Amino acid sequence: MSVAALTINDLPFEILCDLFDYLPLGDIKTASLVCHRWHQIIFSELYIKRFRMVISLNQFLPELKRMVQVLERSDREYYNIILKANLGSPLTEARLKIVKFIVRLITQYAESLYFNMADLRLESCVSERLLRSRKLQLIDTRAKYIPLGMGLKESMLAAICDYATDLQDLVIAEMNITNPKALENLSQLTRLKLLLISDYYPYVRPPCPPINLPNLENLSLINVTDESNFYFKTDNLKRYFIHTNGTHAPRSMESIAENISGISRLCIHFTARTIMAEHIFAALEKFPYLNALELGGVAIPASVLRDLNPRNHIQKLIFVECHLESLLLNDLTEKLGYLKQLVFDSCFLFHKRDGFQRIQYDDLQQLRRSMPSCQVMLDYN
């Protein structure tokens, strides 16, 4: 076939979907009338799931009303909706009605919401990308320190909690929360199983009882203070991930154990490089059901396991971006008798001549020989 004879319909399904993604709602409906193939693609289940729509809250009120009418008459299932607004602008009653409508619209077809306060983005998300990945810190959660009014944040969260009470997964990113009251409405989400919050900076303990989330299984707090541990209470948590700017490891472990116990997987990452990992291992008796531990950003001396109870049931140990004095930790096989997997993720090992160098595959050979029943591996991803 000559190049001149090729038409747009010779493009594969995936390429046509990418082209359709650039069309607004009205034009996508017009495109579906062009031919039988385009109609099949546009209304296929695969394409509907990836449909993306952008709504600007900066439009005039009549235009917003017309947009709502279009959405109400549409048969499409919107799996990805982005709200745009001027940062710092007040959330008027008219705009809040749009937000509430969009929340209802999304939650009709999805069990998950992703909420980014920095650009007023609300969208459904695939929960597996969070549940199946242990490295939640890869999510871009760097604080932007944009001055946003608390009324804006509280009203947005209130809209989610009022109109998405059956929500199972919620991600709140880049909100720069300093007022703990902004999260009180989360107690309405009694079916919530996964909660991820980033940039949460309370510097005092809550004056009222913590937020009770009875069905929560996966809690992740990224770029937070140690005091944020006191704001949540749950009895069924299986996995707890925290990336804290705290500088006092014993206090951090105490704050976690006070309200968050019974967990089987604990992931704790520190910003301060001065924290020594032996303080974390010494506090593990407070977590009797723990079978997986992930430590990030800490110093690992050879005697790190000194205070660890040999009766612990840790089966998986992961070091992330840690500086190790030695790979052959003292009492390693005695204190970690149940260990089945030992992972070094982007870690550094001290060498007398060259100082700290990134751990390489060959560095692990002696450790593998001393622990034949344990899988010892590197992870650079």
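(ticket continues) Second input and output from the same batch:
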Amino acid sequence: MRIWTPRKKKNVIGRIVTANLSEGERYFLRVLLNHIKGSKSFEDLRTVNDVILSTYCEVAVLYGLLSGNNYSESCLTEAVVYQMPILLRRLFDNVLTLCCPTNPRNLWDKFKDFMMENYLHNGISQQSAEMRALHCINSFLKGVGKNVTDFGLVDFDLNVTDDDSFP
């Protein structure tokens, strides 16, 4: 028979569920919970130098938790296991716009095969599949006023019209 007994040590968080970068604030909250010790409330997590910031993303950026490719790369590595290529392309768009990775081209080179997997599966050539994946990412980036050349993914200009639809 099992009997519940209170913890003898301090109260601690026993489990933190995974969160995807595309989940926005939930992801940044998870990053903060994993790195900031001693916080007693959500407001406490958003406080930096006695200033309460409005988002967890801002806090993570100020603490330097999102700089570099480490978090972007680990997020994409986790997503590759269970995401479809279209969702990986959407996530990659979010990584580019929210995390400001230090070397987006390296991230693209490392994960492009996963992002264009559905095109390759349909018998499209490697080069054509890569262009379609870039067009798809570019169409997502267009929504925030950016394009793939802003991140150095290609050395030429990719134009996406409203008629272009690359799932």
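Agent notes: Residues 70-151 form one domain. The chain has a mean pLDDT of 82. Closing as not reproducible unless the customer responds.
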